[in-house]
């Protein structure tokens, strides 16, 4: 259900991006009058599409992954590799959370030139995505440990299937 909500949000943002981009081209080349706000709006929309999409891809196991090494390891080795992988993902999420928060606070008093909205709204996508990635990594660790203890495989056999236990 969360995936569907995120997909709907990304689809709505993408639709808005296409509409605004199309309008900007029409206004510039047909009416010879550029939309002054279109660049800033597109920048914000694409920023959120990027970070929501990255988190959605993580949830769906859709990121590129090479599991040749993992499949060659014995079961305890796969657990260690899985835990290291999730810890690394969690650390990246934590880095995004920490540094993204710093950037958000640093630029909260600055506004965009045309729309005059706080730059914090643009930068907020980074720490929010980082927090979600951290939560996802922690959840996957617990699910992985539970699966390991019951004798199930840690890795999904079909990473592009879009199915996730989370």
Structure notes:
The protein is mostly helical and 166 residues long. It has one domain. It is 70% helix and 0% strand. The protein contains 6 helices and no strands. α1 runs antiparallel to α2 and α2 runs parallel beside α6 (125-149). The model is unreliable at 157-162 (pLDDT under 50).
Primary descriptors:
mainly alpha, 0% strand, 166 residues, 6 helices, elongated, 70% helix
A few lines on this structure:
With 166 residues, the chain is mainly alpha-helical. 70% of the residues lie in helices and 0% in strands.
Name the average pLDDT. 89
| Number of self-contained structural domains | 1
| Count of runs of 4 or more consecutive helical residues | 6
Tell me the radius of gyration: 20 Å
Helix-strand makeup class: mainly alpha
End-to-end distance: 10 Å
Share in helix: 55-70%
SSE topology string: HHHHHH
Mind describing the biggest β-sheet?
none
List segments where confidence is low: pLDDT < 50 over at least 5 consecutive residues: 157-162
Strand content: under 5%
| Number of separate strands | 0
Shape field:
elongated
Write the layout of secondary structure elements.
Layout: H1 2-29, H2 38-59, H3 68-72, H4 75-106, H5 120-123, H6 125-149
Helix pairs in contact: 1-2, 2-6, 4-6
């Amino acid at each position: 259900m969360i995936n569907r909500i995120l997909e709907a949000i990304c689809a709505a943002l993408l639709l808005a991006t296409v509409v605004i981009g199309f309008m900007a081209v029409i206004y510039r080349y047909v009416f010879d009058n550029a939309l002054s706000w279109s660049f800033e709006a597109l920048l914000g929309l694409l920023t959120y599409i990027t970070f929501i999409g990255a988190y959605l891809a993580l949830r769906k196991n859709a990121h590129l992954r090479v599991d040749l090494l993992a499949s060659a390891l014995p079961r305890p080795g796969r657990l260690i590799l899985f835990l290291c992988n999730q810890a690394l993902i969690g650390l990246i999420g934590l880095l995004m959370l920490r540094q993204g928060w710093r950037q958000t606070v640093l630029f909260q008093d600055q506004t965009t030139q045309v729309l005059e909205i706080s730059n914090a709204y643009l930068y907020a996508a980074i720490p929010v995505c980082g927090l979600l990635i951290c939560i996802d990594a922690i959840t996957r660790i617990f699910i992985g440990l539970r699966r390991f203890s019951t004798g199930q495989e840690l890795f999904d056999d079909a990473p592009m299937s879009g199915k996730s236990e989370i």
